[in-house]
Every structure is written in structure tokens, then in C-alpha cells.
Target: Histidine decarboxylase
Amino acid sequence: MTLSIKDQNKLDAFWAYCVKNQYFNLGYPESADFDYTILERFMRFSINNCGDWAEYCNYLLNSFQFEKEVMEFFARLFHIPFNESWGYVTNGGTEGNMFGCYLGRELFPDGTLYYSKDTHYSVAKIVKLLRIKSRLVESQPNGEIDYDDLIKKIQADNEQHPIIFANIGTTVRGAIDNIEIIQQRIEQIGIPRDEYYLHADAALSGMILPFVDEPQPFTFADGIDSIGVSGHKMIGSPIPCGIVVAKRKNVDRISVEIDYISAHDKTITGSRNGHTPLMMWEAIRSRSLSDWQRRIKHSLEMAQYAVDRFRVAGIDAWRNKNSITVVFPCPSEDVWKKHCLATSGDVAHLIATAHHLDTSKIDRLIDDVIADLNAQAA
Ligand SMILES: *Cc1c(COP(=O)(O)O)cnc(C)c1O
Model:
């Protein structure tokens, strides 16, 4: 099995392209400052984590022992006793959200899922796949859910078992729904705590909030029932992945015994990536708490630097508290394309991911945006 010279050249060209563009990303939340070369030797094995890492599996090439330690880490991070939690390494934030919504729907089969207009596009798809009744809720200008509209819609629907999809860091504006207010307001209208479900979509901010001085409420101690985080965003990974953590008692309700794999099936997919748990394990084992704090502080400072520079130039840029996402008026197409920015309506954003060690890329972008917006205004 060998490749032709032509095909080898094609791969070499792609290699050079990847090296050149390794740190290009300023518009999306993917961090590029990772190094998993220590794991490269495992690429020769068909590692498959199908089933539950907590149980025996007939398929010997699994990385369950590493996945277990990853889940221990996240249970601690999200303030739930490990033995009361269950979760796994997913294919990404979307799968984690789907798992959370699935648990909510199994708990409350007739419940309606409420999510704000700023929610990630994956949720509309999840709602269709799971056939959950759903309601779109208005957002506030900063991207946070409109609490009045949420309560108004729950009451209008006469919904007794709402399933709340809370954003812990929205995709476009980095906004955090206040789950303390959500819980207070729901309980004020007479729905007790065990009659509704609360999932936290923390794709990006789930790895920011645990390491800041004044986090908004987002953990199990604060009242969530499940949480999804992306592994390829704040943590960084060459293969998209994620983490989901839920309450064990809710997961047990969906668990099915499978004789073929001699294990319990409770995950969305069958075969599961066995390499990404190794990467997540390496990422958490190689950094101390203060390493994470320093890395996140750096990103937050870079984001604030960008806000300040824009503002000095008279451009209305801003960011939400504890967010590395900087929102500003959308520049012309040639500017946002040149810098691979994500745009939404009349805004664009940059995300101060951790691989931006200095301000050079951010400065180039800001220079272009300032020149462009000033030219538009003139
Ligand atoms: C990125 C993102 C997702 C989806 O995560 P994937 O890892 O891309 O599947 C979900 N929610 C939010 C808020 C996101 O930013």
C-alpha cells in the first residue's frame, strides 16, 4: 500500500498549507495552541470507546480508563459529586446538547423546549430529530435570553414541564443566560424544581467560567441538570470533540443493555472515538489550575484590548462579562472575508482564542476594520 508520487505531493502541499494557516483563526472559537504529539503513536490502533467507560467491555482496545479520569475532572469542575454524575467524551458541543435535550425529553415526554433566538443553530436540528415541542424566546440586545418573554411563553403554553435550554456563552455575542433568574422566575409561577429540566450549553464558556474570579452561575451547584462543552474550542483538539455531564439518575433512565457488546448503551452514537478522550486527558493532565487561569486571563485581556482599541477609534465594540468574544459593527465583505470573520446580521465578532500570544493579528484586523468603517461613514 503506497501512494503515487502525485498523491504524495498532494499531501505535502496540504501539509504546507496547514502549517502556513495553523494560527489563522480569529473569527471562530477554535484554539490552536495544543500539542498532542505525545499521542501520535496511538494512531496505529483502532481504539473504540463504544458503550460506557464505567463498565467492562469486550472490545479490548478502548481508552475507558482515560475517559473516566476526564469525566472525574469535569464533574469536579462543574460541581457535581462524581458518583452522582455520568457523562462522556462526545463528538462535540452539538452531541452534548442533543444528549441533554434527550434526557430532558425522556424525563418530560410532553415538555416544551424553550430556547432563545441567540441559541446555536444546532438546537433547531435537535428539536426536529427528537421531535420535542419547542418555543423560540426573544433575546435581549446583548444576546441574553429575555426572561419576561420566557415566562410569558411558558404561561401562554400552560406548560407544566418546561425544558430550558440555557446558553452559557452564545455563539455570536458570548452572552450568558442567568440561570439563577430563570429558576427563580419559573418557581415563582408555581413550577417546582423537580418539574422542569435545565440544560446548559457551555460549548465555549464551559472552559472559561471555572477559571475566572467572578463566574456567572453555570454549574450543577447552581441548578443545572446537564451541561455540554466543546473540546475543540477553548481546550483545543485536532479532532472535533466535546464533553457532556449529566445527573446519573437521569442517564439511568435511558440506559439499554446490549448483549452484542456485553455492555450498557447510553450514548447517542454506537462506536465512539477512543483517541479524543486521550487528547482531553492529556490536555487536563498537562495543565495545572493556575495554567488554565493564566491562559484564560490572557484571552480575556486580549479581548478587552480589542474592545479598547476599537473604542478609541470611535467604533462601538463591546463584549459580555467573562467573554472572549468581541462584537463590533460588520465591516465590508472583503474585510470580513480577508480575516475569516464570522458575521451575523449587522455585527461581526472576533474571538480572542488562546493561540494569539501577541496582538499582531488582532491589530491587523482592527486596522482594517477601522479603515473600512470610517470609509463607509465618510
Ligand atoms: C460551537 C457551539 C455549539 C456546537 O458545538 P460543536 O462542537 O461545533 O458541535 C453549540 N453551542 C454553542 C453556543 C456553540 O458556540
